[in-house]
Write a structure and sequence with these properties.
The protein folds into two domains: 77 residues, Chemotaxis Receptor Methyltransferase Cher, domain 1; 192 residues, Rossmann fold (3-Layer(aba) Sandwich). It is 44% helix and 18% strand. The chain is built from eleven helices and ten strands. The strands form two sheets. The protein has a seven-stranded mixed β-sheet. The structure holds S-adenosylmethionine (SAM). The site of S-adenosylmethionine has 22 residues, from loops.
């Protein structure tokens, strides 16, 4: 029987643990035993595309120098969870909106307002933040600089994000007035995000484990939802510490509920808000 018609061979326990270690070392992501079939299927599908049928040979190819790193960028895209939507977890976005509105009301927006969307996937999160910024600046008739850096480990997700074209089923979940303001209809029931939002966002490939190499400093808002939940507790804490160092005084971190547990930092206070997990730099 030819390989393309065969079921994927089972990973041995040793192979499963070797693949899990690689994924954790390179992306921070920790797989459970229940995700074994998922891992096996994704790796086997990629091997099939390459005409390979041996997990160990493919593993060796992945850890071999520059060509291995290039192959890794293809595989990692298949192994991450990229689920996202516009204004996902609305209370977090409402909190960001109120935070910015208060700054405008109190004339505290002197220089730029800088945002980092960490693990931005296909772009819905940073575009939602840009919509909020645009709304508030537009209503206040002010035009100070704001910019959003949006990073993700998956190059394929970033390509979709940069294009900013989304199917109707995603866009119709957005409030109608917002939808009409910020999307333009295209052919085949697709919608594109307006250029005024696109030009505010800089999409970059970036692994949050290499946070020291990322050009994200002096931030007003770090938005990180549904990314650290796949990491071990000690790693989540290390990354939150690094986030804390990248905030301006008074800047905030908004993360997903339960994204990090029991985290404290000498320069950070936890904000007491219902349904939102947020922190402010003293
Ligand atoms: C579930 S999505 C969350 C998207 C968005 N933040 C949201 O809440 O809707 C998780 C994203 O984190 C990215 N990711 C996972 N590990 C990462 C890492 N080590 N560095 C950067 N991004 C990572 C994945 O590629 C994926 O796009």
């Amino acid at each position: 029987m030819i390989w393309s018609l065969q079921a994927a061979p089972d990973l041995t326990d040793q192979q499963f643990s070797q693949w899990c270690k690689l994924l954790e070392q390179r992306a921070g992501i920790c797989l459970s035993d229940q995700q074994r079939i998922f891992l096996q299927t994704q790796v086997a599908m990629r091997m099939r595309e390459l005409g390979q049928d041996d997990y160990s040979q493919y593993y060796n190819r992945l850890v071999d120098g520059v060509s291995g790193m290039m192959e890794w960028t293809v595989l990692i895209d298949r192994l991450v969870v990229k689920e996202t939507s516009f204004f996902r977890h609305k209370p977090s976005f409402d909190y960001a909106r109120n935070y910015l509105q208060n700054k405008v009301n109190n004339s505290e927006l002197k220089e730029s307002f800088d945002i980092w969307s960490v693990g931005c996937s296909t772009g819905e999160e940073p575009y939602s933040l840009a919509m909020i910024m645009n709304d508030i600046y537009g209503l206040a008739r002010i035009d100070p600089y704001y910019g959003i850096t949006a990073t993700d480990i998956s190059r394929a997700a970033l390509a979709i994000a940069r294009a900013g074209v989304y199917p109707q089923r995603k866009v119709e979940l957005v409030d109608k007035a917002v939808r009409q303001r910020y999307f333009e209809p295209r052919e085949n029931n697709r919608f594109t995000v307006k250029p005024e939002l696109k030009e505010r966002i800089c999409f970059n490939q970036g692994n949050v484990l290499n946070i020291k190499d990322l050009p994200t400093i002096n931030l007003d808002l770090i938005f990180c939802q549904n990314v650290l939940i796949y990491f071990r507790k000690w790693l989540r804490h290390e990354i939150m510490n690094a986030f804390a160092e990248r905030l301006k005084p008074g800047g905030i971190i908004i993360c997903g509920l339960g994204e990090v547990v029991d985290w404290t930092h000498p320069n950070i206070d936890r904000l007491s808000v219902d349904e939102v997990q947020a922190y402010v730099r003293k």
